[in-house]
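Example 454.
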Amino acid sequence: MAGIRSPIAVVVGHVDVGKTLLLDKIRGTAVAYREPGMITQHIGMSFVPWGAVERFAGPLVDRLRLRGRIWIPGFLFIDTPGHAAFSNLRKRGGSVADVAVLVVDITSGLEEQGLESLNLIRARGVPFVIAANKLDRIYGWQSEENRPFLFAVERQEWHAVAQLEEQIGRLIDQLSRLGIEADRYDRVRDFATQVPIVPTSAVTGEGVADLLLVLAGVSQRFVSKERLTVRDGPARGVVMEVKEERGLGTVADVIIYDGVLRRGDTVVTAGLQGPITAKVKMLIVPKPLDEMRDPEDRYKYVDEVRAAVGVRIVGEGLEGVVPGAPIVAVEGSLEEAVKAVGEEIAAVKIESDKEGVVAKADTFGTLESMVLFLRQSNIPVRRADVGPPSHKDVVEAALSRRRDPAYGAILAFNVRVPPEVEKEAQSSGVKIVRGEILYKVVDEYLRWANELKA
Ligand code: GDP
Ligand code: MG
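Predicted structure in complex with magnesium ion:
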């Protein structure tokens, strides 16, 4: 049964801009306006059916002439608590996310991690919209629960509108310096070249209707139907998180973007040493809200799940799986699946004898986004791998240093540096730059390299 699935919409941005509250608001709205049984939850995802959006946003749907023109079944929203979560939504040649919502605080514009999210959105080619959140903080703004932004802005005093325009203008300038053309969504003339900015408030719900409609428009225009078509074949997905659960052992939270995953399936995924084969013992999803009896009774076990879905896998052999790793169910030959996963992982790692720096990161996703960013910054990479810096990395960096002192460096993103490795690096003249914000790590490295040359 092939069909069109909902686009996977990832919500990204700096900490505290309101990503989670915005999603809570959207979910709450969907629950209030749903048809019975229509809202489903997933691990790390929530489904918002189009029917609920249309009822909630009715007058705006008509104003924007969207009635009857939306063919996506809804949205599958993914919250990203930190930037690693977005990095890990990787798949070969792009992102598992079909569209993105970049949330910024309207009163402060783009901040560090917002910028970092933006870099990754662009590097992975994900169509996106900007939610300029905390609209209710605009001085003099008169709020009304859940009112669409277009209607709200018509009812404001001139000075509140002037404040709003000033903040949006600043955001537009900031984006333009990054080479991005953007405008308030109702002023966008060409969605192919301009990014729409939708003012929202996660507290009052204002602008949430606009955000959902603009996101639907962007999804339909820029995500191909082919990409949204699910097959009946074996599951393909990506590992978001791996953890120990009391009574269950190692579990992996994964997002399946194509195919069907069944209890009993053999899956191939990957760890530090390469491909890992595991057996799916149980599949766990959250209970629908109306079946939930008490907070302890939140999950249910299912026999199969169909893309797109977020699911928790209990399995044998999942220890050592690294987030950001692909996961595929084996249908035909196990060797073929192992080979395919091995090739995909090899595409993320770099092992060369060319000169360049050593890049280390905590997951396959963060490593991939790091390598993408280093390439954009014209910094050659000799070796890139997951895990903390090791003896081998110091040796490689020291070799690179002989050819060019500026390449005698290890860039460590989101990983700790073991003290003995730090010591060894110091005595080999190898510089280790460590940090949690990618472009800061790169800036610090470049400053060091420039000082060497001076
Ligand atoms: P996240 O880190 O991006 O997920 O941010 P949260 O959703 O956790 O929100 C961070 C803080 O900002 C919380 O205290 C929220 O109540 C507040 N907040 C979020 N959205 C809004 C908004 O639209 N207006 C106002 N006034 N506060 C907001
Ligand atoms: Mg949050």
